[in-house]
Specification:
Blueprint lengths: L2 H7 L1 H13 L4 H8 L4 H7 L16 H12 L4 H8 L3 H8 L11 H34 L4 H13 L1
Helix pairs in contact: 5-7
Length: 160
């Protein structure tokens, strides 16, 4: 393996270099150019958890909202919960907190499946209730049928 190939195959070594450059105060673009890493996903994984230097942050009217979003994310809230709390878009929240760790799932896999099953059971029960109501209304609107009318409708269904 050549020196260049091994240099980029070593993720941890590359991460250490990227973090060191970040701590020196370089922007993502400057780090990209220095390390010759042009894949944005890889670059962000290398810098994950490292805050941007102050000089790269543009002054923004929503700095206080951004700080609140980061705090809520650290408390374990999801994007949806943060959106409800702060009233800002999920795309903004994503940009503000994407370097923070994801919250642990609120439910275990078994609990999630049980909740989903309970929801499906409730849905099926309401559908069955609606079906029964439709049948009752149809039965009442038809009234009583004579034996001849029942026979004709049965033959029609059989041959139709």
């Amino acid at each position: 393996m050549t020196e260049t190939t091994s240099k980029y195959a070593d993720f941890e070594g590359l991460r250490e270099r990227a973090v060191a450059l970040r701590r020196e105060g370089l922007s993502v673009r400057q780090i990209r150019d220095r390390l010759k890493v042009f894949n944005n996903d890889m670059l962000h994984r290398l810098l994950q958890g490292e805050p941007a230097p102050e000089w790269t942050k543009r002054p923004n009217a929503k700095d206080d909202v951004r700080a609140q979003a980061r705090e809520l994310r650290l408390q374990g809230l999801t994007y949806d919960q943060i959106q409800v709390e702060l009233g800002c878009s999920k795309s903004s929240i994503s940009l503000w907190v994407r370097d923070l760790p994801k919250p642990k799932p609120r439910f275990t896999e078994e609990e999630r499946l049980a909740r989903m099953q309970a929801g499906l059971t409730a849905l099926r029960a309401s559908q069955e209730q609606e079906r029964q109501e439709t049948k009752r209304v149809a039965r009442e609107s038809m009234g009583d049928l004579s034996d001849r009318e029942l026979f004709i409708s049965g033959v029609t269904l059989l041959l139709g």
